[in-house]
Specification:
Length: 290
């Protein structure tokens, strides 16, 4: 029963995250991207500050200076820096497709950083998935289009953030980590706005999508965190890919985007490879269990 509830929460989380991405893209079409990021950081930080107060979690904690948490905040801010710009400039469906490579990148990081053993079949699956990413971004003889590279870099930093989350001290609660993560967007958003647009004014047409962006992001955090806490990882993790069809549907409805065959083929390779990697990890964990 817990797994069923967890799966429902994960599906809801992926749908809300896809909605938040769509709101970022919509807001950034009217308001400077840096201000959109600052709004996300300020409002999300305020919400999680309230949650910390309600749960009796000390916000002014020395945990903020823990090396892993500092790295996690840097990775979070870097991911937002690149992904917000990617969402503002390229197709939502393409960004969502590239982001599905996170489990594959995590496998590489786990082998390189955590020294986890990765067998030849998982390495082959990772290779196929990365080939899928290359098909999505379609590098030419002149190189990779820099706007597509924004989505790739943002995805790499998201994977690094997830790795840091695994290594974070257990006494750091989810609301506290979330508070620090959202607050880290403020200086990065300010730098992005200063270095690009230099306009410090939010368009009135952006108020509604910005509000939805914050609410959907916080709801997504809550749903995914709940899913991972009450369900088996092997049961809920594959449902992370539900974000892709949700993003594609919203992209079609809101922005009239129709993914080309490169994006569809590449996304299919990435998703199938990621599911295979998750299945193998679950089988290996089951064998190790007493």
């Amino acid at each position: 029963m817990n797994n069923l509830r967890a799966m429902i929460f994960m599906i809801m989380g992926m749908a809300t995250f896809a909605g938040a991405d769509a709101m970022v893209k919509l807001s950034a079409s009217q308001t400077p991207t840096g201000l959109v990021m600052m709004t996300m950081g300020a409002a999300g930080g305020l919400i999680f500050w309230g949650i910390c107060r309600l749960t009796g979690t000390s916000v002014l904690s020395r945990l903020y200076f823990h090396p892993v948490i500092l790295l996690r905040n840097i990775f979070e801010a870097a991911a937002a820096y690149f992904l917000f710009q990617a969402l503002a400039q390229i197709e939502l469906s393409k960004v969502a497709a590239v982001m599905q490579a996170i489990p594959l990148i995590l496998t590489i990081l786990a082998a390189a950083v955590l020294k986890e053993h990765v067998g030849p079949r998982r390495w082959a699956a990772v290779g196929v998935g990365l080939l899928g990413v290359m098909i999505i971004i379609r590098p030419s003889t002149e190189g990779i289009v820099w706007t597509d590279l924004l989505a790739v870099l943002g995805t790499v930093f998201l994977a690094l953030r997830d790795l840091a989350s695994r290594l974070a001290p257990s006494e750091a609660s989810t609301p506290l980590l979330s508070l620090y993560a959202f607050l880290s967007l403020l200086p990065v958003g300010a730098f992005l706005n200063w270095s690009t647009d230099g306009v410090w004014h939010i368009a009135s047409d952006s108020y509604a999508p910005l509000g939805l962006m914050v609410l959907l992001s916080v709801a997504g955090y809550y749903c995914v965190t709940t899913a991972m806490r009450i369900g088996d990882v092997s049961a809920v993790s594959p449902l992370r890919y539900f974000r892709l069809p949700c993003a594609a549907l919203l992209a079609f409805i809101m922005f009239s985007e129709v993914p080309d065959w490169h994006t569809i083929l590449g996304a299919a390779l990435v998703v199938v490879s990621g599911l295979f990697v998750m299945l193998r990890e679950a089988q290996i964990s089951a064998k190790k269990a007493p």
